[in-house]
């Protein structure tokens, strides 16, 4: 009899199933190793159990504390899993390992592309253009559709003036069932027994945990929000949790959807006149560009990338407000709101992760490795492979410029332009000194002051550093931010 294929919790879609016998393990001990967002733990268990119910007799479903407890000595096959730890495990178990799946490009494709490039020449946009050209996606012969590979210039608009939301229909929300009810009971029991440590609110479940739900979420995105995705990609409104974002990272990262399915759906919408190119290209770049890119970098940059990267010498431990997702204790409206949303849902859209949470952590010098762990555990779509390049590289510039050529630091003016947060805040984004000085604005200058020696050689930072040198109240701003206890 053929060895069963071990299916991990992020390999739940049809593209991980070739028709043979399957084996799944619900390992509570793995959930207990970290303090996870409760909605994330719920999603993983719900997705595993729904898949097992769908598969019926085709799957052997085992309960265990740890994988090894029930897998040691078994003959197994596996699609190469998605973390350094799980890859070591399946090799230790002697499983027959098939190449990984679930991304547009293969690890072999990337290895070939990266072979003659040093880390400083790994540029996402070049990789993306090559994949576009090779796949022919959004191409007219050798040329990109619309004459450009990138429509960022037309996108990145602020929210409509005076709007409290984008006026779009509510995004797809699944209907919970008996499996979700049982998951909640089990999580309560394990929490009471001290077997798991959870944070954040659980429920109602907001993200797809089954293939049918994932397809419904994709169709809903294409029909109701894709058109606005590009223009408002970087905008935030207090009254709009999702803006025009897809909320598909959860089903993508659970392996319920193949990224190519999402890309094909948005490209089909463009080709039938259902969505503008500027939005469709933006989604294709996020998925075929960024998502594949950070996946490949996870392997390419090595297992110790997070541990060894701290270019800006950031040593401040993450504060309690982050660990406890306690936005209520924070006065800065933008940060308070986003932390509160993460507590409530386990989700925040990209610009909130990058320009509010990441920017705040960068300015304050939070330890990149701690921050990576926090993001991984606190977000419903957090995975070991997605975080290193996004957090250490893009948002904290801790690798010194491999992922992003300059630190993504900005003051309150950017947040004020791209959101309605500042109007509801006790601080003033235009002020860097005084009682109501915005901690993002003042924090920006204090950050530049602290890291100046480390970024002096970066020509993209020449202008901000010239501004810092011209700042008449530089010392006072730095002293104020050093002494700031209330934010
Ligand atoms: C600090 C930080 C932390 C992040 N944490 C995560 C995370 O835990 N899990 C995660 O999947 N993504 C993460 N991202 C990337 C991105 O923010 C999320 O994928 C996105 O916000 C998920 O929401 P969405 O599905 O509505 O995305 P949309 O804005 O609708 O984008 C469509 C899809 O593109 C993909 N995508 C877009 N940008 C990225 C990126 N930079 N890296 C990888 N995929 C991308 C995702 O699959 C996403 O579903 C992070 C980015 C930053 C800067
Ligand atoms: S004023 Fe500053 S702290 Fe307040 S919401 Fe705006 S950017 Fe955030």
Automatic annotation (TrEMBL):
Task: Name the chain's protein.
Answer: Cryptochrome/photolyase family protein
Database matches in InterPro entries: Crypto/Photolyase_FAD-like_sf (IPR036134), PhrB-like (IPR007357), Rossmann-like_a/b/a_fold (IPR014729), UV-DNA_repair_photolyase (IPR052551)
Q: What is a single Pfam family found in this protein's UniProt entry?
A: DPRP
